[in-house]
Design brief:
By secondary structure, the chain is an all-alpha fold. It is built from 26 helices and two strands. The chain is globular, with a radius of gyration of 23 Å. It is a multi-pass membrane protein.
Length: 575
């Protein structure tokens, strides 16, 4: 911790002691004489609405948001906030329409949903695939980006030590089960929100001081300076570039690079909804927090998380824009302009004490996400693979023990893949890396869940074809479509641009991945419907849906309306 003063270290240690102590206290207070598997994996009936909401945010806001989204804020601007603000609407949809179906049918894992609605083959294939995705893509990216950010802030040279430290902290919490994760996430969220807002406040003061020459920086003046100095960074909807082929020497080259990541208004009719609805509604890592609660508690917790999502861009995106303005004016001499280093560059300005709080906030986000992710990995492995295919007569104690071993093994695998950045996460850009590669399976998975819930005719054969076809189509649009159909079709527009990587100019031709995702989803849905029409009019495994399941009480309705009004105001202001 060479770059931290004694006060910073004390603040960080206080955070660690409080979280660890609270976790141990929760574990001892809530454990029963014989801890069952559902109690361990789902904290059945133990989490309050505020714990569910806080845990959803803590699990979601991690290194890819703090580092990756801040990096996209540096590069693109406020347009990247769509991932957070559309998530608020997605969470409303999940709370009102998805969660009642899960809870009525006593669904505890996503593979269980697939087995209940379709068949064991679909369930097993997706269980294995989700384990692969969670370990190889999600867990590794959270660990690598988080350790890299903290290492940069501390002066470098300790990347591997920090990786091990983060894993050990997450292990301490994860082994306690969902109860410990859920309630410690409340503290984690408090730390990351307080630390995050404090960092933003100081960043805006620094902008006012460095750009305007103010003796004592004013945060509001700093924010107005950002708008004045980088007006293009405060446009939610990016315009489609007129040029489809650019070089480094052309100013349009940057516009093309931004557009392929966030393709303007088109993304709101394509992949943006699929990303959010699949992530929040068909993802064990997220839905697990609500599956052990009653409907009213689960709904309120999810809507609370949706309300908090409105404020997340302030914490995770605004520092990136501040870094852009400071860098463009020559006030970040130690920063090389690589977008994933933007957040760490801002943290370097923080005074003694606040820097320790910022490191604690970043650590809280990373540890909470790691712990939540490995708990989901152990839940799927234990309940959907170990119990069903390896040891059907496993006792409750054996299942809990197996779940804990699954956590340890997943942690070890993540460390192995991140030790030398085998997957090239740093080169892709953390946030884009995760969105792009999870986007390969999102269209098929979401189509399978959506039709499975709300169309009684959907068959298991259609589901299996759908998940495979969605994956194949995503790869096709990403890698082969341009070579076969050309750069300009009625389905898409592909762009060719140049990018400097490792001192070498790379020429890249691609279709915006959110557009790829949208067409992959539409085609998959059509094929699944056609296949299902060959089956019975009502599939015998279809869910029974009662309209009363989707009714909401007045308190829930007020929370939904307030969230939508705030979101509307944001879009009107920054359109």
């Amino acid at each position: 911790m060479g770059n931290l003063a004694t006060l910073d270290i004390i603040i960080f240690l206080v955070y660690f002691v409080v979280v660890a102590g609270y976790g141990i206290w929760i574990y001892n207070r809530k454990k029963s004489t014989a801890t069952g598997s559902k109690d361990y994996f789902l904290a059945e009936g133990s989490l309050t609405w505020w714990a569910i909401g806080a845990s959803l945010i803590a699990s979601n806001i991690s290194a890819e948001q703090f580092i990756g989204m801040s990096g996209e804020g540096f590069f693109v601007g406020i347009a990247v906030a769509a991932y957070e603000w559309i998530a608020a609407i997605a969470l409303i949809i999940i709370a009102v329409w998805f969660i009642p179906i899960y809870l009525k049918n006593k669904i505890y894992t996503m593979p269980q949903f697939l087995e209940t609605r379709y068949n064991k083959s679909v369930s097993l294939i997706m269980a294995v695939f989700w384990l692969f995705l969670y370990v190889i893509v999600n867990l590794t990216s959270i660990l690598y980006l988080g350790a890299l950010a903290i290492d940069t802030l501390l002066g470098g040279g300790s990347l591997h030590i920090i990786m091990i430290g983060l894993l050990l902290m997450a292990l301490l919490i994860g082994l306690g089960g969902m109860k410990v994760i859920g309630y410690t996430d409340v503290i984690q969220v408090a730390v990351l929100i307080i630390g995050g807002f404090a960092t933003v406040y100081m960043a805006l003061q620094i902008v006012d001081q460095r750009i305007n020459g103010a003796t004592v920086g004013n945060a509001l003046a700093g924010f107005n300076t950002l708008i004045n100095e980088a007006p293009q960074h405060f446009k939610l909807i990016l315009e489609k570039p007129k040029a489809t082929t650019t070089t480094l020497a052309m100013p349009e080259n940057l516009d093309v690079q931004k557009y392929v990541v966030l393709p303007g208004l088109a993304m709101y009719f394509a992949g943006q909804w699929i990303v959010n609805l699949n992530y929040w509604g068909c993802n064990q890592y997220i839905t697990q927090r609500a599956l052990g609660a009653d409907l009213k508690t689960a709904r309120t917790g999810i809507l609370f998380a949706g309300f908090l999502k409105l404020f997340m861009p302030i914490i995770v995106m605004l520092p990136g824009i501040a870094a852009y303005v400071l860098y463009s004016k020559g006030h970040l001499p130690g920063f090389n302009g690589v977008k994933d280093g933007a957040y760490s560059a801002i943290l370097g300005f923080l005074p003694v004490g606040l820097k320790g709080l910022a490191v604690a906030a970043l650590t809280a986000a990373i540890v909470a996400s790691l712990a939540g992710k490995v708990n989901s990995i152990s839940t799927i492995f234990t309940l959907d693979i170990y119990k069903k295919y390896l040891k059907a007569d496993a006792t409750e104690i054996e299942m809990v023990r197996t779940g804990r071993w699954a956590i340890i093994i997943a942690m070890f695998l993540a460390l192995a893949f991140t030790w030398t950045d085998v997957l090239g996460i740093g080169g892709e850009g953390g946030f884009t890396f995760i969105q792009k590669y999870t986007g390969f399976i999102s269209p098929g998975v979401f189509a399978m869940f959506l039709l499975g819930m709300f169309w009684k005719r959907t068959t298991g054969t259609a589901a299996l074809v759908g998940v495979i076809l969605g994956f194949v189509l995503a790869i096709f649009f990403n890698s082969f479509a341009v070579d076969i159909f050309g750069k300009e079709t009625w389905l898409y527009t592909a762009f060719t641009y140049e990018k400097l990587e490792g001192g070498v100019v790379q020429t890249i031709t691609e279709i915006p991945f959110l557009i790829n995702m949208g067409w992959s989803f539409v085609i998959t849905i059509i094929v699944m419907i056609l296949i299902s029409l060959a089956g019975p009019k009502v599939n015998p495994k279809a869910f029974v849906i009662d309209a009363s399941m989707f009714k909401v009480d007045n308190r829930t309705l007020v929370l939904i309306v307030v969230t939508l009004l705030l979101l509307t105001a944001l879009y009107v202001r920054f359109w």
